[in-house]
């Protein structure tokens, strides 16, 4: 019964009134001047019709009109014409109102949850930013105060403290530059200069530049096999940042005497680059937040090793600016694998003997 349309309710009500009126007239026929069956039926039909009209206007003005006001208050879109929200007895106005209200509740709940998440993110971001700035600022302040208290005249102290203050200043500059770059990436103000280049040869250049750092930890970086040149269409400098960050992280947080392996996969119009290590790995609960600004899996070690805490966030933004994806797989005690995709360049681009595209 609750899903009946207004027209069905009116017709059922009119039929009940018609039958009731007819039975009453017929039961008390002796008191009425007309003793004809058709007269009873005609009078019953007239009374039923009047009842239909009365209840039609009652439903329209006391149920439909208030519901129309409710629709306008909860709907975000604007009615194009007056006919769209006009009263229609063939529609189930109660059911429609219930569906609209449920949809409204779902949307508002989603908005509230999103606002709560943004508030948590904003609070965490401001707290982390304050902490990251506080560390170098307090260091600089301590060095300056020491120099002002007499250390400036001590040749064994002044140069050492000035160098330390300079390093702390460089850390602050690096942090601010990273924040500025993320902001530009988020608002699409950072220009992506896509040009074809050999991702295999370029990755080898990045590996060569980091080889000495890896050697100090007894680590090796190598390709899984010998790869033929693979051309991608991307911003070479930006992808260099991505490779530098991912390989540096693998060195920084990997196990001593560990191994970093780079692989390339060629699939249709996409080239996938994969960087794997056999380090301590990352817990599953940490992975969803891994690319957030300042998020640290191992806070104490991460701060000791340095870094702005923005590297992976920048990496994610750079890859997404190329309309591509980056993923991570990790098992605690086994290691982690970061992989990202890039658009494949046209194969008819001429190459040099080292696999470098020729203009």
Written description of the protein model:
This protein is of the alpha+beta class. The protein folds into 3 domains: 6-91, no CATH class; 126-186, Signal transduction histidine kinase, dimerisation/phosphotransfer (DHp) domain (Helix Hairpins), CATH 1.10.287; 195-343, Heat Shock Protein 90. It has helices spanning 6-27, 37-74, 93-148, 155-186, 199-216, 236-253, 299-305, 311-321, and strands at 195-198, 220-223, 231-234, 259-267, 270-277, 326-331, 335-343. It has a 5-stranded mixed beta sheet. A hairpin with a 3-residue loop joins β6 (326-331) and β7 (335-343). α2 (37-74) runs parallel beside α3, α3 (93-148) packs antiparallel against α4 and α4 (155-186) runs parallel beside α8.
Topology record:
Elements: H1 6-27, H2 37-74, H3 93-148, H4 155-186, E1 195-198, H5 199-216, E2 220-223, E3 231-234, H6 236-253, E4 259-267, E5 270-277, H7 299-305, H8 311-321, E6 326-331, E7 335-343
Parallel strand pairs: 2-4
Antiparallel strand pairs: 1-3, 4-5, 5-7, 6-7
């Amino acid at each position: 019964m609750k899903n009946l349309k207004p027209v069905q309710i009116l017709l059922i009500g009119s039929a009940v009134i018609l039958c009731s009126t007819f039975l009453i007239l017929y039961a008390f026929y002796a008191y009425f001047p007309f003793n004809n069956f058709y007269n009873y039926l005609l009078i019953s039909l007239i009374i039923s019709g009047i009842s239909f009209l009365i209840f039609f206007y009652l439903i329209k003005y006391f149920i439909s009109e208030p519901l129309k006001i409710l629709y306008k208050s909860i709907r975000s879109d604007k009615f194009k014409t007056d006919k769209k929200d006009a009263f229609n007895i063939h529609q189930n106005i109660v059911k429609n109102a219930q569906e609209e209200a449920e949809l409204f509740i779902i949307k508002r709940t989603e908005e509230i949850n999103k606002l709560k998440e943004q508030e948590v993110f904003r609070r965490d971001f401001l707290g982390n930013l304050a902490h990251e700035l506080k560390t170098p600022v307090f260091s600089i302040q301590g060095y300056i105060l020491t120099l002002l208290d007499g250390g400036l005249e001590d040749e064994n102290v002044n140069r050492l403290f000035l160098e330390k203050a300079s390093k702390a200043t460089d850390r602050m500059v690096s942090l601010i530059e990273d924040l500025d770059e993320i902001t530009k990436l988020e608002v699409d103000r950072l220009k992506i200069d896509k040009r074809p280049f050999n991702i295999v040869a370029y990755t080898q250049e990045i590996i060569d530049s980091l080889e000495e750092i890896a050697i100090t930890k007894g680590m090796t970086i190598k390709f899984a096999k010998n790869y033929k040149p693979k051309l991608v269409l991307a911003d070479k400098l930006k992808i260099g940042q991505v490779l530098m960050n991912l390989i540096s992280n693998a060195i920084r947080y990997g196990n001593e005497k560990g191994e970093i392996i780079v692989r390339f996969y060629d699939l249709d119009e996409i080239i996938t680059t994969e960087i794997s290590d056999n380090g301590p790995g990352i817990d599953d609960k940490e992975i969803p937040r891994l690319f957030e600004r300042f998020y640290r899996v191992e806070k104490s070690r991460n701060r000791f090793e340095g870094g702005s805490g923005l590297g992976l966030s920048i990496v994610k933004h750079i890859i997404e600016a190329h309309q591509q994806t980056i993923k991570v797989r990790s098992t605690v005690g086994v290691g982690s694998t970061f992989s990202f995709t890039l658009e494949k360049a046209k194969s008819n681009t001429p190459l040099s003997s080292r696999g470098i595209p020729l203009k």
